[in-house]
Design a protein that fits this description.
Blueprint lengths: L5 H5 L8 E6 L4 E8 L13 H20 L12 E5 L5 H11 L8 E5 L16 H4 L2 E5 L3 H10 L4 E5 L5 H15 L6 E5 L4 H7 L8 E5 L8 H14 L3 E4 L2 H5 L4 E4 L11 H7 L7 H5 L6 E4 L10 H4 L6 H20 L12
Parallel strand pairs: 3-4, 3-5, 5-6, 7-8, 7-10, 8-9, 10-11
Antiparallel strand pairs: 1-2
Helix pairs in contact: 2-6, 2-13, 3-13, 6-13
Protein name: Ornithine transcarbamylase, mitochondrial
Keywords: Amino-acid biosynthesis, Arginine biosynthesis, Transferase, Urea cycle
Catalytic activity: carbamoyl phosphate + L-ornithine = L-citrulline + phosphate + H(+)
Length: 355
């Protein structure tokens, strides 16, 4: 897919890392460990430690507070440029990224390299004349194959951000965690219940939840379980962090005692031909108040959108327990935090949240 860009990318300057000293305002002195983010790629949260992910959430909360609540002028990305690649259609990812980049603070706009909402392009041949590493500071790519992202990151000397792939959707999970941290005031000890397909969203939760001390109970139909290699690594993370990981085919078992009920589309982009088969396989997986009855008393609901009624009924989706709309807004603040952390030297100024 990326063969025609290799000469251009190989001619670019090598990337350099940067060390952030994370300040702990509660104790008044710097933490001993350093968070290294500037110049990094964000392809999967598997590559990030718990402290690094916490830093991104801290930065997200800081930017949201300073810009939205205090109305401060923060031209942090001014003069920077972003290339965007969309092999799949996008609403929230694209809109949140564009608002981050073209907000009044930045005075610039992202550059879309591949424009195709419904059909897979023939590759990045449509952008052969673009010198990615020489003309942009970062690239956000929504692609079919994770391997294409990995190749792009290997060739490029600028940060590559995963806007969604067949295996992972890390920027969505950052928004989910920020939403839960805002609602509960902490993340450690929460039990997440996934009810649905063993897809990229679940994979991203599996690669990160245990690093916060969160438990995961996931129910998928037989034949639709998550990738076995990812499951094996998630089991290792759970063991290392002393958390619970339950994989089952029973939605009520997964929901039992859970603080957070999470689902997603049963038919992802590129799976439309499987619709009839999938709808049959996922019978009984709709999240309803019956599901919520076995959850914890403080249960909440997340869905990354767009939502279909067979996945969750109206009573749950529009209930006061549903956090889907704050979750959608937080895509903006977490994407902003990702871009700021990968491209600038900015550090949070607010007190570090409790995780």
């Amino acid at each position: 897919m990326l063969s025609n860009l290799r000469i251009l990318l190989n001619n670019a300057a090598p990337r350099h890392g940067h060390h952030f000293m994370v300040r702990n305002f509660r104790c008044g002195k710097a933490l001993q460990n350093e968070v290294q983010l500037k110049g990094r790629d964000l392809l999967t949260l598997k590559d990030f430690t718990g402290e690094e992910i916490k830093y991104l959430l801290w930065l997200s909360a800081d930017l949201k507070f300073r810009i939205k609540q205090k109305g401060e002028y923060l031209p942090l990305l001014q003069g920077k440029s972003l290339g965007m690649i969309f092999e799949k259609r996008s609403t929230r990812t694209r809109l949140s990224t564009e608002t981050v980049w073209s907000a009044k603070q930045q005075h610039n706009s992202p550059w879309e390299l591949v424009r195709n909402a419904n059909l897979r392009p023939t590759g990045l041949e449509t952008a052969d004349s673009v010198v990615l590493s020489g003309m942009t500071d970062a690239v956000l790519a929504r692609v079919y194959k994770q391997s294409d992202l990995d190749t792009l990151a290997k060739e490029a000397s600028i940060p590559i951000v995963n806007g969604l792939s067949d295996l992972y959707h890390p920027i969505q999970i950052l928004a989910d965690y920020l939403t839960l941290q805002e609602h509960y005031g902490f993340l450690k000890g929460l039990t997440l219940s996934w009810i649905g397909d063993g897809n990229n969203i679940l994979h991203s939760i599996m690669m990160s939840a245990a690093k916060f001390g969160m438990h995961l109970q996931a129910a998928t139909p037989k034949g639709y379980e998550p990738d076995p290699n990812i499951t094996k690594l998630a089991e290792q993370y759970a063991k290392e962090n002393g958390t619970k990981l339950l994989m089952t085919n029973d939605p009520l078992e997964a929901a039992n005692g859970a603080n957070v009920l999470i689902t997603d589309t049963w038919i992802s982009m590129g799976q439309e031909e499987e619709k009839k088969k999938r709808l049959e396989a996922f019978q009984g997986y709709q999240v309803t108040m019956k599901t919520a009855k076995v959850a914890a008393p403080d249960w909440t609901f997340l869905h990354c959108l767009p939502r279909k009624p067979e996945e969750v009924d109206d009573e749950v989706f529009y209930s006061p327990r549903s956090l889907v709309f704050p979750e959608a807004e937080n895509r903006k603040w977490t994407i902003m935090a990702v871009m700021v952390s990968l491209l600038t030297d900015y550090s949070p100024t607010i007190q570090k949240p409790k995780f």
